[in-house]
Amino acid sequence: MPTTILRADYAAPAFLIDTVALEFDLVPERTVVRNTMRVRRNPAAGRASNLELVGEQLEFISAAIDGHPSAAIRAHEGGLTVNDAPDAFELTITGACSPAANTTLMGLYVSGGNFCTQCEAQGFRRITWFLDRPDVMATFTVTLRADKDACPVLLSNGNLIEQGDLPDGRHYAKWEDPFKKPSYLFALVAGKLVALEERIRTGSGKEKLLQVWVKPQDLDKTGHAMDSLVRSIHWDEERFGLELDLDRFMIVAVSDFNMGAMENKGLNIFNTKCILANPETATDTDFANIESIVGHEYFHNWTGNRVTCRDWFQLSLKEGLTVFRDQEFSAAMSGGNENEAARATKRIEDVCVLRQMQFGEDAGPMAHPVRPESYVEINNFYTATVYRKGAEVVRMYQTLFGREGFRKGMDLYFQRHDGQAVTCDDFRQAMADANGRDLSQFERWYSQAGTPRVRVTTQYDEAGRRYRVTLAQDYGDASPAARATQSGPLLIPFSIGLVGQDGADMPLRLEGEREAGGTTRVLELTEAQQCFTFIDVPEKPLPSLLRDFSAPAIVEYDYGNDELAFLLAHDSDPFNRWEAGQRLATRELLTLAEQAADGRSFDMSDALVEAFRSVLTDESLSPSFRALALMLPTETYLAERMAVSDPAAAHAARRFARRRLSEALRQEWLAAYERHLTPGAYEATPEAAGHRGLKGSALMYLSELDDPADAVRLATRQYDIANNVTDRMGALSALMNAAAGKGGDFAKRPLDDFYARFEHDPLVIDKWFALQATQRGRAERPVIDVVRGLMQHPAFNLKNPNRARALIFSFCGANPAQFHAANGSGYAFWAEQVLALDAINPQVAARLARTLELWRRFTPALSAQMRAALEQVNADAKSRDVCEIVQKALAS
After folding, report:
1. Which of the residues 247, 374, 407, 480 has the least number of beta carbons within 10 Å of its own beta carbon?
2. Which residues are catalytic?
């Protein structure tokens, strides 16, 4: 049985490593690594006789203490022991690994003929024996030697201090990183690469060299990434006073990568999909994601690298904080500092992701606090809770203290902890001390799992002109995993406004205040139930609740349909304006889903149609906001909101609603499509993307019509004249949707053309696979058959995470109606692929395994088949990664 690691068992390391000198002789089949470390006892830890280093999949060659072989050194499975270790000594270990055979993509491996590393969380132990934990920080000097023809470029962390030629066609490069770092931030890249370079000056006048390294054929797709990096550097200086601290900053894009990117000090390694972009190959979403991810990894230079985690339970210390920083950066880049509507659009997008990914996680067997208390495999805790909910926890500090108070807390945090490995409590304490607040209750956001619910009741006293708001918090029907962590009420910053009958915000004055102050107020909910009374309220208002989504909570308030429509039309808070529409749509769709589950005919009111009409035709709203507001809740979200999840009923309900909206608003969709055409050269701007987004929404609704002739005509024309992949894919999606509805072959020619046009561009072919995996499908040809067929396609490669995610993950995670087929074919496919991936890349397999973790919430017929699939995987899986997931799911 795998060992469970507990946060309560943390102990400081018995030894520290001050310096590391690594020498690599890079050969794909067998790379020899010589590791020389200066080791000393940790005066802050208990005394231990032996030094215990960890190592995995390594070949031991030799070892020495202070230059001499020693019988005290013993290599064994899982590590290396130095018996009776001296108080301070130099330890040299020589070993070997096989990068070419490393399909896990952790440690040192080969991608497309180039050497690459991924060391977070525990990959460094696959390179050499080490104290592979984040609270052991050392300075690194790295010498790389390789064949000059095969590897003309040799990169590592820090500054290049020496390079030259060697005999037999080889060469070397020596790198020195002046900053102490844990081993998980080590990186090297070697191979045939070229770089886009740019020199900038920071605020202090220092010149910096920026490089984006890629394969030669991809150089023309690096401009957007470089521009994003430059903007990130300048924004971090302006917003937080944080300057780039190295003489050079490098980004490398590789095609085989388990994650999106990695923040290794000064040498960020990226998945190609998070770097490469031009209009012909990258969508508007790709352009936005690249800017966000480049910013995220650069911001880690301070929030993660200069100040890092004491242990892996503190992962959100760096990830939650840095996600918040990249969200603020992206909002600013879209005009969000001056434009509240643009900022709200970004906020809506972030909350959508939180609700789709993290709320479900909170409700299932993998529910865990932002700071987990235990794990079996740390790779399984790179989760939406740690990242996305962690970012919301950080955002609440800013909500409580304002931007100025938050900056004061950040300044104090760096002043106290630069160069250290610290905890979430250290960050919270810096925020508290900088703002003169006791935040002991706020700690529960880190230690309690589950999504809090806030029930709101109101009462208006017309004679006294008083409006009483009662807030009550609990966790509702939290999962057993979440309930086990809960100990008391949270400090919830609850933002509220009151909307008058004329649609205008009312000035807010709480009982006890001398005068009104503003039209939005952040109430601090600290008890299980609290009452807040607003005075001088001239008429009964309509409450606008949790404005800007001021806390990661579910609000329960009994709005009527007419009240939601009123807020959608008038609320001054853009987020809540969108939220009102989503509440109205969810209510209608859940009613339809109940009708479908009971076998009744559909009966839908006109409320949703009229609400959509008002948004679609309101030219005062930005196109990007309207595109989001006109997007119905997903089938997955609807199924999760049902008492018993029924994907088929959710699919039928959503399809009926889309068809009704397409028919009732046909002329409005056609007008919107024509009005938001974007002729001329492609522009990767938020404004242009908004127009393309609304145009694409209109086209998809038109493709739902019983007679999709207009959609087919417009989509075919759009595909043929498109000068960007956003329009091309939008057209192809609409054609595939129309074909699914009518059984035609409208999409065959463009689908074949798309492949022929882009067959040599892997990232675009990923999109081709994903489009087919997520299509609606037809009874005579279920999508599972399409997916199985595509797995035999010459372009499919299970070993490449991007390709596996594009086809297998898209089908299992983004096509619920087809995946949850009544015959269980989707579950059988899932089990096959989890086990196949487990033998190649356990980390990717574990991500796929999570698809069935909420199995108990489905209809009895589906849940029985899910359980059988889980039991099959549990019986045959070999990795800790997958076993932890399926065993927790089965035990839930």
Report:
1. 480
2. 297
